[in-house]
Amino acid sequence: MAMDIFDEMERRGHEQVIFNYDRASGLKAIIAIHDTTLGPALGGCRMLPYATEEAALTDALRLSEGMTFKAAAAGLDFGGGKAVILGDPAADKSEAIFRALGRFIDTLNGRYRTGEDVGTSEDDFVQSLRETNYLVGLPKAYGGSGDTGDNTALGVMRAMHAGLMHRFGSPSLKGRRVAVQGLGKVGYHVARHAVEEGAEVIGADINPHVVGRVSSELGIEPTDPWAVVETSCDVFAPCALGSVINHETVDHLECQVIAGSANNQLEDDKLADRLRERGILYAPDFIANAGGLIQVADEIQGYNPERVRHQIESIYDLLLAVFKEADETGRSTMAVALDHVRKRLTYVHAIRRIRS
Ligand code: NAD
Q1: Pocket of ligand 1, candidates 88, 205, 223: which has the most ligand atoms within 8 Å of its Cβ, to mutate?
Q2: Where are the strands (E) in 52-199, listed by range?
Q3: 233, 257 in Cβ contact below 8 A?
Q4: Ligand 1 atom nearest residue 289's Cα
Q5: 149-343 topology per CATH
Q6: Is there an atom of ligand 1 within 6 Å of 284 CB?
Q7: DSSP per residue over 292-317, as a string?
Q8: The pTM is what?
Q9: How far apart are CA 47 and CA 62, in angstroms?
Q10: pLDDT tens sequence across 261-320
Q11: CB of 217 within 8 A of CB of 162?
Q12: Is 93 a catalytic residue?
């Protein structure tokens, strides 16, 4: 592996990276724990046929860092972690793999909890549950709070409302043009809520069956998965994978506001400055997509849907404050949001020095 792992951990501030291999099941998984200042690490487990081990490690490192930001911005008492399984979710899933993963997670004694993410489902973790209790987002039948897609989508909607309020003086989606990239567990609900709120919705997915089903069910306009990025619209909602805003696409975006669920939407944080220069209002991903994390964090304390909805609502006020400060200081919304996160990590760290 060409990457210098300790340099990378130092650069991003990681505490621990664990390589897990089980010969019997063939499981290969990486668990990255970024920062546990606020509490035990929490973050989903991805399964993808990564082209290289380095790509898998990079994904785990980036995503776990993002989880620290997400939990900190949402006001949660959890740190950031993420697991990735190297494998094809369509071909390599088995009871053995998810039980083996459960055994490895259990060795961490609650220092890291996980659940579904891209390429995994809540049902996969029912297998892991046979080996560990450090899981979240389990099916309701197994004592969990169920799928997080809709709560994540509700947070994205509040991010859209805040963006529209800041840009146009009204949070209403009525008559607004919304382009949704990725119509999966979150994107479907984003498209549905936007249609219900009177928006004209354009949707795209690389899976033709998904786009066909969702466009006929919701009456949205289907478009090409790549063209959707450049579609002229009021709100662009990236709800597929990361890095959709990159050095090639950033100057082709034709939207006023970006608010979506994908993690790491910016290929690199400096692109936030380019978005600002172009007059595009960016709702930082780790604030807009916190609804699912808020749900699973609540599950650990005994799930209360009303409390979860209330916390998701706060995404709107937080983003309005971020947008205002970004305007006042001439900085990108990303820079302001990261400042907010660092301040919280710093004072919680300082407070914990107080001893009885
Ligand atoms: P999902 O796998 O259910 O859906 C993703 C969809 O995007 C799939 O239908 C896939 O075919 C499609 N897709 C992939 N690449 C695409 C492309 N280039 N163009 C168009 N469509 C494409 O995943 P999800 O749970 O809906 O999550 C979507 C994103 O939101 C991911 O980045 C995920 O990490 C993030 N996220 C999800 C949650 C959650 O609660 N599920 C929470 C926070 C963040």
Answers
A1: 205
A2: 79-86, 112-113, 177-181
A3: no
A4: 43
A5: Rossmann fold (3.40.50)
A6: no
A7: HHHHHHHHHT---HHHHHHHHHHHHH
A8: 0.94
A9: 15
A10: 999 999 998 999 999 999 999 999 999 999 999 999 999 989 999 999 999 999 999 999
A11: no
A12: no
Token pair 């506001």 in the structure block, residue: 257
Candidates 28, 70, 82, 93; catalytic one: 82
Domain(s) labelled CATH 3.40.50.720 in the chain stretch across: 149-343
120 C-beta closer than 6 A to ligand 1: no
Which helix (H) or strand (E) element contains residue 202?
strand 200-204
16/223 Cα distance (integer angstroms): 42
Residues of the chain with CATH 3.40.50.10860: 5-67+79-139
Which residue's structure tokens are 């592996």?
1
The closest residue, in CA terms, to atom 33 on ligand 1 is 262
Query: For ligand 1, what atom is nearest to the CA of residue 242?
Result: 32
The class (CATH top level) of 5-67+79-139 is alpha beta
- What does the pLDDT look like over 42-92, one tens digit per residue? 999 999 999 999 999 999 999 999 999 999 999 999 999 999 999 999 999
Task: Give the amino acid at 229.
Answer: V
